[in-house]
Amino acid sequence: MQLIRGKYVLKDGRGTWYDVSKTPSDLISFPVIKDWNKVSEAHKMEKKKLESILPHFNLHKTEHDAPVK
Known about the structure:
Strand content: 5-15%
Number of strands: 3
Shape: globular
Radius of gyration: 14 Å
Structural class: alpha+beta
Distance between the termini: 21 Å
């Protein structure tokens, strides 16, 4: 499964999105984003951007290495 992170959001390999705009003291307790209506527009825009990037690297069924552009 894929993991992707930006400045505001992170998607783990199970499809859960986290708010990483602030760093918690223990570095693993990022808040889970459960309601996208409660996050900033920057969070939403970054999620959309990251979702557009992921398919270019989701080639585990057809390719062995990273994609060629």
